[in-house]
Amino acid sequence: MVNENRLHELYTNLQKRLASDLDAARNANKNANAKGDESELTWLKLFDEHLPHRYRSAKGIVIDCDGAESDAIDIIIYDRQYTPVIYNQHGYPYVPTESVYAVLESKQELDKELIEYAGKKAESVRKLRWTSARITAITGNHEPRKPFVPLAGIVAYESTWKPPFGDAFNSALSGLSQLQQLDFGIAAAHGCFELNHEKKELKTYPAERALSAFLIRFLARLRQNGPRLKVFPSGRESCTSNADRQVPATSYTGRCGRDRACSNTAQARFAIGRK
């Protein structure tokens, strides 16, 4: 008798717990705003518990060196190690662009309206200005890095589309501008998706492994960008606006991640379902 890999069991239990928490938020709160707040807190808790501690998650506003602000963002993934939060009022921080890795919007349902909404929120962040400065760390002196485009995504409980990632979903994605493009997302009850803009490829994962695939692929994308190694400088040694940078246009071919590894590690292969 072949026992199921323990990682499968752990990620399955995590998936069930998340689904239960999101479902409880939907059923316990009749007020739409209360439902949204509970959903956001559930996702924020998930990221804080399962991302490495160098990453922090918070609901807040992104601010740049000129004082320009983004729209209010449901979930900001940022690096607290090298760049301080500028201002924090009752857990609602102003996060400098220098520390931002990703921004996500959290809603109950994944639909065209959410995709457009999340795209506009992503644009409000990406059009800001990034600065970088030379710093000294344990690994030595580091010259300013060229800013990279922060990731953008969606987290939801379920999709309103059937199938969840079919033609209607693709059509909604194709309507986004370059600065609005999304990189990943999850509808916990129906699956998750990841976009590779360089390869113009859309990859989806099934519902039974949605959460594990989403967390592992999300972390892999964060690591691809590497550490920010930035400080909020008094002078502008390097200053660039993402609005001036080219992002590939959206045109994707679909691929299913059911039988493929999402990482080079054995843990990732087993977690998503490859044996």
Number of domains: 1
Number of helices: 6
Q: How would you characterize the largest beta sheet? A: 10 strands, mixed
Secondary structure class reads: alpha/beta
Radius of gyration: 19 Å
Averaging pLDDT over every residue, what do you get?
Answer: 79
**Helix and strand succession?**
HHEEEEEHEEEEHEEEHEEH
Helix content: 25-40%
Terminal CA distance reads: 15 Å
| Biggest β-sheet: strands ordered side by side in the sheet | 3-4-1-2-5-9-10-11-12-14
The unreliable regions are 229-238, 243-253, 255-275
From the spread of the alpha carbons, the general shape counts as globular
Number of strands: 14
Strand content: 25-35%
Polypeptide structure, described:
The chain has helices at 6-28, 32-50, 112-126, 167-174, 210-225, 266-272, and strands at residues 55-63, 73-79, 87-89, 92-96, 100-110, 129-132, 135-137, 140-142, 151-159, 184-187, 191-196, 201-205, 238-241, 253-256. With 275 residues, it is α/β, with parallel strands linked by helices. The chain has one domain (6-272). The strands form 3 sheets. A 10-stranded mixed sheet has the order 3-4-1-2-5-9-10-11-12-14, sandwiched between helices. It has a two-stranded antiparallel ribbon with strand order 6-13. Strand 11 and strand 12 form a beta hairpin.
